[in-house]
Specification:
This protein has 437 residues and is α/β, with parallel strands linked by helices. 29% of the residues lie in helices and 22% in strands. It has a nine-stranded mixed β-sheet with strand order 10-11-12-13-14-15-16-17-18, with helices on one face. The longest helix has 22 residues. The structure holds iron/sulfur cluster (2 copies) and FE2/S2 (inorganic) cluster (FES).
């Protein structure tokens, strides 16, 4: 991947022009973070989870604003005077404004930044320092440009094609239940009662107010792992828990493509036996056919795309995606991914689809519409309905009752689906109900 440089802004050779510096200053929005003391509950999540340079050096990266559970942080205009910082970008001496992230500086210089992967643009989907898609060489080390402040004499290099990728991954553990992409009729082989082992990648491109995994999604304050390191750790877990299935979830597992492909390649090498299964849970928002082909080619055997509705309004409500065009693109890509896998890999790759349910964001009519569409493709596709509980920023909703979830199951059955799995809460514990066909 090479990141495009707008040649009319930065000359290919020689020093930066005064006009470039001026443009750079003009394009930068001077912002700061304020904390609403009435809203802040002093939960300390922003302090422990985020790699923040500190209030004095705040770059207005916005990571803490995205992450705060109680929406207590806001970005507001600031009057602070920006200083000039000297740095080198792709070998060229530059002067740029202080109190900015490297990504903000690059954007102000004309680099293309994108939230949907395209060639020659820096893909920066999470903006919270977890996915490392935006990582570039900063003083010789791969660092996420979205949260790293620019500093005096910094050396920045956007050419990272030959670098080993990194990503924040945590929560390596055994699982009794499995995820959306775990076959429902799997028999537990492990004498310890585990079904699979899993790890969780930080960073997501959605901003779901009911994020069910926010502690992982927004965690950036730990050392990132190379694909090899993560594969060794998951393989060790497999041995410890005596299972054949190895899963990666998130956050959104697919954001950093190079990392994920190398991780699966390495997992496959370390687990070359015929029983090993490699499972990805994903929201499928950027899962294009060529990406799916590549994942399968390197060793993915099971996949669980989570579809956040079928109606655009529902999708926007669930994911809090501000750009309608981007929301359309994500939603379309995720549904197309399911169809593509069913058409091209039926019988070769296991696919189980997830649907989040809570009556505050999805009606039974929409559940029926989802079921009907999936039925028209393959009535035997496994569908797991997840009962979305009050979580993250949304506490004022009820977790769907057991009866309500049975109603959802009936609705999906009426639409023609044959394999439905419910994840429901009964007697205060999370249990899995498997509906036999
Ligand atoms: S995450 Fe939000 S509520 Fe929690 S301490 Fe930080 S600002 Fe306060
Ligand atoms: S996380 Fe980013 S926006 Fe928040 S205080 Fe730190 S530098 Fe500023
Ligand atoms: S966009 Fe920078 S780490 Fe994800």
């Amino acid at each position: 991947m090479s990141f495009g440089l707008i040649s009319n802004i930065i000359q290919k050779e020689g020093d930066q022009t005064p006009e470039t510096l001026l443009l750079c200053f003009l394009r930068i929005k001077v912002l700061k973070v304020i904390i609403d003391k009435d809203l802040c509950k002093d939960c300390k999540f922003c302090e422990v989870a985020i790699a923040c340079p500190g209030q004095d050096e705040c770059t207005a990266c916005g990571s803490c604003v995205i992450t705060c559970l109680f929406s207590a942080r806001k970005l507001v205009k600031d009057k602070k005077e920006l200083l000039i910082v000297k740095c080198t970008i792709n070998g060229q001496q530059m002067q740029v404004p202080s109190h900015q992230t490297v990504l903000q500086v690059l954007e102000s210089l004309g680099f293309q930044i994108t939230s949907y992967p395209t060639r020659d643009a820096i893909f920066a989907p999470c903006r919270t320092g977890g996915c490392y898609s935006c990582a570039i060489l900063i003083n010789g080390e791969l660092k996420p440009s979205c949260i790293t402040p620019v500093s005096e004499n910094m050396s920045i290099n956007t050419q990272v094609e030959d670098q080993a990728p990194k990503r924040v991954v945590s929560g390596f553990q055994g699982h009794h239940v499995g995820g959306v992409g775990t076959p429902k009729d799997l028999i537990v082989q492990s004498p310890l009662g585990y079904l699979e082992v899993a790890c969780f990648a930080s960073g997501c491109l959605y901003r779901c107010p009911t994020c069910q995994n926010w502690q992982i999604t927004y965690l950036s304050n730990i050392q990132p792992l190379s694909p090899d390191e993560a594969a060794y750790r998951l393989t060790a877990e497999r041995k410890q828990y005596q299972v054949d299935r190895m899963a990666i979830s998130g956050g959104e597992s697919t954001l950093n493509r190079k990392w994920l492909i190398q991780f699966i390649e390495q997992l496959k090498k370390l687990n070359s036996d015929k029983d090993a299964r490699i499972h990805i849970d994903t929201n499928a928002a950027i899962l294009t056919p060529d990406y799916i082909d590549e994942l399968i080619e390197v060793g993915m055997t099971d996949i669980g795309p989570d579809l956040k509705g079928i109606q655009l309004n529902t999708f926007i409500k669930i994911t809090n995606q501000k750009s309608k065009n981007l929301a359309k693109k994500y939603l379309k890509t995720s549904w197309n991914a399911v169809k593509y896998i069913l058409d091209k890999y039926s019988g070769k790759v296991f696919i189980g689809v997830g649907i989040p349910f809570n009556r505050t964001f999805m009606s039974l009519e929409e559940v029926f519409e989802i079921g009907s569409k999936l039925t028209s493709w393959d009535p035997r596709i496994q569908v797991t309905v997840l009962d979305y509980r009050p979580e993250f920023r949304v506490q004022a909703i009820d977790r769907p009752s057991y009866k309500e979830m049975l109603l959802v199951k009936n609705t999906l059955e009426e639409s023609g689906l044959k394999k439905i799995k419910l994840k429901v809460t009964r007697f205060n514990e999370s249990i899995r109900i498997i509906i036999k066909d």
